Amino acid sequence: MAQPYARRSLYENKRGFGETDLCTFPTGIVMNTLVIIESPNKAPTIKSCLGKGYKVVASKGHVRDLPKSKLGIDIENGFEPQYINIRGKGELINELKKEAKKSDFVLLATDPDREGEAISWHLSVALGLDPAKTKRITFNEITKTALKDAIKHPRDLDMRLVDSQQTRRILDRLVGYKISPFLWKKIKSGLSAGRVQSVATRMIVERDDEIRAFVPEEYWSVTANLITPKNEPFVAKFYGNADGKLDLTNSDETKKVLEAVGDGDFIVSSVRKQIKQRRPLPPFTTSTLQQEANRRLGFPSQRTMMIAQELYEGVHVGEKGMHGLITYMRTDSVRISDDARALAKTFICTHYGDNYYPATPNIYKSKSGAQDAHEAIRPTDPSLIPENVRGKLSADQYKLYKLIWERFVASQMKNADFDTVASDLTCGGYVFRATGRTMRFPGFLAVYGDVDDGDNSEDGDGTLPELAEGDIAKNHGLKPEQHFTAPPAKFTEGSLVKMLEEKGIGRPSTYTPTITTIISRGYVQRNGKALEPTELGRITTQFMKDGFPKIVDYDFTARMEDDLDLIENGKADYHEILSEFYADFVEQLHNADKMIDKIEYKKPVEETDIICEKCGARMVIREGRYGKFAACPNFPRCRNTKRLDKDGKSAAEPEETDPSKEIISDEKCPNCGSDMVLRKGAYGTFFACRNYPDCKTTKPYHKDTGFKCPLCGKKLVTKTSKSRRTFYSCEDYPNCSFSCWDIPTDETCPKCGAMVLKKKYKNIRYCSKNCGWTSEGEKKSES
Question: The whole model's pTM is what?
């Protein structure tokens, strides 16, 4: 039964849980204290930091959510949400209740953001926690110092954060629940719409439209190869004339320059020397980490956040024991604490010298609207040099930690200094320019270099020979080159996150789930690093622009994010925000209902690589009551159909796909060394020695699922138990222990990026790494 919105019992009644009782809560005293966190993966690190007297348990994400079977929001009663306990969490809730009753005190230590605050509030209601012995603590890093400081400063639940998260959840439910039926009716069943996912899909569609409509424009460059009076070679590039810069837009203009210059000598008309500085970039936020990890390491955003989560949760680092290596990874702030700045100063001065630390510490300003209660993403201890902990980390963990460590340390160092020179040379009435740049002082580049990092300086790299006004440079040839302007680049995950952030759409915690959603639902596909819209994504975007233009309007979506920030800061009432949104939304629903039958949208057809053996056509995917199948597009003239496996291929047994070819195992027969050949018997498919009957060795055939093992990355294969039940296991068993009864999926966990499994007989999905995420309790689902 749906539970009422009982939120004000902890907000208005401050007795016990409020400021009036703060002095009665024994801060910092080690007693029988229960600490409730979100992810069980953090538990070992937190336990080792807290020591005796504390029991650490995990809620595994949300324990309550809106029901899936109905809207679950009483619109007429102030948008009151009707929460229910998430299916499958009953046993966990009962266990947490028992632990809370046995404890003298309870500390709610969920993540330090809106979502974490909401989970703490839901726990307090679902577990019936006694306000007199319950407090909320937050920490940005999992270290002994940070945890002890958090326990010394417990606080009340911040209901402004809860209101903000709840408003987002209600908005997402209203949009998804009300718009999705329109998509089902006009385009395809099972589709969904969402405030952020629909806007992100629109961005990718419109970028693709720009690329398709792009008309290249011609332009030319001319490079002069010159020699100084001291016989030193250098190059100068066409700049313009005495009046300023000129663009060469065709071959005729270029020919005029070549004829005017000919083989004449160049005269140095000006030499300008400067010392230029390059400032380090600020430490990472969530979005800039995802962008740089994608650009430098090739990591997709899900992978970046999964690895960052592991670094935050902690690893064993020698004498320090279990230790969180980085601060909380969902943040849009570039602020760092005074303690962190002091640690950075000590490290820089010790390892690089005092001259590498600026006279005035580098202070970076967060963008407008940033949640400055959080710090930037940084190493918890700069003295833990990446190379020194490399043996404790996986290859990907090491790469990401090194990136975060270098960016932070560099952000606290001095600017890099360069000597730059620009010389203008004239010949035939035209001006050519030669530039050079040499490093004067490396500064932060001693730590974080090797790419331009957004430095758009026109100063060329490398030295330029010493030149003086009036010098004559010999002309050793002109090199004209034709160029064409390039279309806008396709979005990558990194550049999409950057665009979302620039337009104020979404927040650090939503970028990765948004990208995961639009890919998993078939609106967008990856092509290498690039993100491309599918035909389904194009049709759905056009429908949203026709029927619900405000929902996919960039400015409108950004204003909604700003409204959520106002609620969090106590500057807006969530009832008013929801009422204003819904009044306009109802009008959009009414208009869409009127126009839906007037416009026809072409339903997307997904082709396969399967050729119809009856008529030769390329078969397409259709959906029936029992799922997807391949059908001939020439229906009803040709009625051929085929079953499909999960990869969209014909579901025939391997040897049936081409009877003329044998399928041979990579492994040889362990008894005689002959090939092991795929055979089919009464009990299924298996590998048998080619020398049968002289050698009767057999081995089971494990069909490749097409998925990677979430533990070691090797192939995940199907196996059959003694009771003839199918299960899934790593091909490297027993070296890798991963196995499961439930079905692997293409979906990745929006919380940690791991593979998602689907229960065989229930429509429930959950994280293969048991980080706490389930489809029943999905934090930010846009249902």
Answer: 0.74
